[in-house]
Amino acid sequence: MYDRILVPTDGSDAAAAGVEAALALARRFDAELSVVHVLDPNEHPPDDAEDPEEVTQWGNEVVDEVVEMATHAGLEATGDVLEHEGSIPETILAYAATHDVDCIVMGTTGRTGLGRYVLGSVAEQTVRASPVPVVTVHEDITFDTEFESILVPTDGSDHALAAADHAVDLAAATGAGLDILHVVDIGALPGSADPTSVLDALEEAGERALNDVIDRATEADVPTVEASVMSGSPYRAIVKYAEENDVGLVVMGTHGRTGLDRYFLGSVTERVVRRSDVPVLVVSKPD
């Protein structure tokens, strides 16, 4: 399913979590691993080197360490230190586009200022702009690729369905079960409308969204399919469901319904990525 996986690294603890996850995922799918470090004029390595040549050398050492880890794990791996052209996310995505990368793995942390590849900076911007799936994993989480279930929230939008298709393919490829979740966002109810009729309409729309994904999973022979409807704050419900049902991976789209934007990155998806104790794979809808 994945032939080439890209993992950016800056030597931080958050990036190290991404490296471990990328190695695990590459082993699971027998994928090649591309390791990159993007040079930054404002970068200050741990040894406080300031000379450009020393900074470049440090970047090479960071990349070489990961490539060596991959080689010892029996994986094919290449490493590159990239010149900073445009923004760091743009540099990473340009590399991904020219090297046929089909998955990016990045470590994250909810605390800013602890590395360049933390959520809220490079990782967040990469997730937003990436045309290929991006897996995010917190620095204190171990990514176990032998997961038994995958959670995919859906609101029936095109972007949610793109994520659902990816989750279905991943479940079929790994033998994992699929948990499909729709959250009725009570907070989105308009104040002037009859709450009962609007809530009924939202629940009916949720059932249709669930059935659509169930049909796709059934056609793909996913071994186990569970569907649930919850109400409340969408991101809180998703995080809670993942924690209480021993989910191994959450798969989400980057956008949601036009106007409501309930699954728009910067809203629900971003909050799930920040707060989830489970790795999150974010999928963008193809143009």
UniProtKB/TrEMBL annotation:
Species of the source: Haloferax elongans ATCC BAA-1513
Ranges where the UspA domain occurs: 1-138, 147-283
CDD domains: USP-like
Designated name of the protein: Universal stress protein
Taxonomic superkingdom: Archaea
Cross-referenced InterPro entries: Rossmann-like_a/b/a_fold, Universal_stress_UspA, UspA
Protein family per UniProt: Belongs to the universal stress protein A family.
PANTHER family the UniProt entry points to: STRESS RESPONSE PROTEIN NHAX, UNIVERSAL STRESS PROTEIN UP12
